[in-house]
Design brief:
Elements: E1 3-4, H1 19-37, E2 59-63, H2 78-91, E3 93-94, E4 99-102, H3 113-130, E5 134-138, H4 140-150, E6 163-166, E7 169-174, H5 184-194, H6 196-202
Parallel strand pairs: 1-3, 2-4, 2-5, 5-7
Antiparallel strand pairs: 6-7
Helix pairs in contact: 1-3, 3-4
């Protein structure tokens, strides 16, 4: 049986989100996506890439920046397909209902702390709208952005494999997914840590 990470797979004891609340969250998410898409704060603005998924998704995947081939409907680009194929083929996971997002919303060549801070408000709002049970934080930029967005209860220098809990959500810190196709050793570590996500969700 496939393990599905997404809306509708709540932990035992959690009540279902009422339809009226879900509709409000979807409306809020649409407003946020529009704000990200039309943001003009960076050079060459109005090219921001919003996250993709639905409110209530159990699993939230956060990369530092848009991936290769990323677009408005897929901020992770090629990384998303790479991840989905591995997860489905080897672990039987269905990531179709997971939420995918990035800390930086534009594909900047160089990243400064001010860029991370500029996008942190988008990330904070997105996190509270989606309300995931587990966030996989991929890479240093994503970890720094998460701390900027949610405060200093998020570790300042987390190591790959570290886990923390805030607002009833668990955060699993990962290596940068950008390293997976370039470094065999990093890829082995990345997939090993990611495989822990199933156990973390099962024991919420």
């Amino acid at each position: 049986m496939e393990k599905e990470f997404g809306a509708g797979s709540a932990c035992a004891g959690e009540g279902e989100v009422t339809s009226s609340i879900q509709e409000k969250l979807r409306a809020d998410l649409l407003v946020l996506r529009s704000a990200v898409t039309h943001c003009g704060c960076c050079p060459g603005g109005e090219r921001g890439m919003p996250g993709q998924g639905e409110p209530g998704a159990d699993l939230f995947l956060l990369a530092g920046r848009p991936g290769p081939g990323a677009g408005a409907l897929n901020p992770w680009g090629d990384w998303r397909e790479q991840l989905a194929q591995k997860a489905a083929g080897e672990w039987g996971w269905d990531l179709g209902s997971a939420y995918f997002s990035t800390a930086l919303r534009c594909p900047l060549r160089r990243v400064a702390r001010r860029d991370v801070r500029r996008c942190a408000g988008f990330l904070a709002e997105e996190f509270f709208i989606v309300g995931p049970r587990l966030v996989i934080v991929s890479g240093k930029v994503a970890a720094v952005a998460l701390r900027e967005a949610l405060g200093d209860e998020i570790p300042g220098n987390p190591r790959a494999g570290d886990v923390c809990t805030l607002f009833s959500t668990r955060f699993l810190f990962e290596l940068d997914i950008a390293r997976v196709s370039k470094e065999a050793e990093a890829a082995a570590v990345f997939w090993s840590i990611l495989h822990q996500a199933g156990d973390l969700l099962d024991h919420c």
